[in-house]
Amino acid sequence: MSEEILKQQVELAKLIERHSGLEGVYETAIPSLFFIHRSNVTRPVYRVYKPCLCFIAQGLKEILLAQERFEYGPADYLISSMNLPVIGRVIKASSDAPYVSFKLEFTQSQILEVLNDSEIQITPKENAKRAMYVGQIELPILDAILRLARLLEQPKDIPYLAPIYTREILYRLLQGQYGVALAQIAMEGSSTYRIRDAIEQITNNCEKPLRIEELAETASMSISSFHRHFKEVAAMSPIQFQKQLRLQEARRLLLAESADAADVAFRVGYESASQFSREYSRMFGSPPRADIKRLKEKYDHNVHA
């Protein structure tokens, strides 16, 4: 790692600590930019990643996408180019050297704008690629990240400069190691683009029965080709993808509403409460009631600690 990259990482870590402070995820004044601060290693956290760039200024994290494990730290960046259900865990953090990270969400439209306005040449004929990847951080990318974060010190500049620096970050990423894979989500005709549409359909209607024939038709693929490309992008089958979305949504509802587990099971699309309980236990380690009780006790402890 170069001395200049190390110097910028240290500055970014201090910026994040100064503008987050509290434990957890902090939404900044810059649109779609979040800072994360953790003083300890964490238990697994289940969530759906939107398209985003994640960069760790200090600490270490692992992400599980189905059975695939991604580990990244200050030498790397992680990109999720689609909505993906993942399990994340901070694996290196302490009160003296907390885990601090930068997360910038983006859209397919922003990628397309950068491609249209630049001279970057990408072919849409590429096969579908995994929608999550870890690349080695490069100075031009980190420099743009740092300039975007510095705007929090000059809030009056955010409305004008934040969109410019965000576009520069995307431009640098598109020129980097995984530029082709990132560009595919915005290019009509690519298999990745067509799978992205199917993923959005499942995400927006996860409580409804999965109709593979309709999804394959939407993607203009045969059923076998659709299954193959979907698994290449998401690292899991469409049914597994939907199941993870349903169970994450069920957990959110149980926490937010103190609702009955059977009622929540039906709301997220399960026809059998017993099947829901089995699959919930398999994913989260304990049945719904016990799991929610533990989460609420942990929350109460943190609030009153």
TrEMBL record:
It holds the Pfam family HTH_18. InterPro entries: Homeodomain-like_sf (IPR009057), HTH_AraC (IPR018060), Tscrpt_reg_HTH_AraC_N (IPR009594). The keyword RNA-binding does not apply. Residues 196-294 form the HTH araC/xylS-type domain. This is AraC family transcriptional regulator. Gene3D superfamilies: Homeodomain-like. SMART domains: HTH_ARAC (SM00342). The lineage of its organism: Bacteria, Bacillati, Bacillota, Bacilli, Bacillales. The keyword Transcription applies. Keywords: Transcription, Transcription regulation.
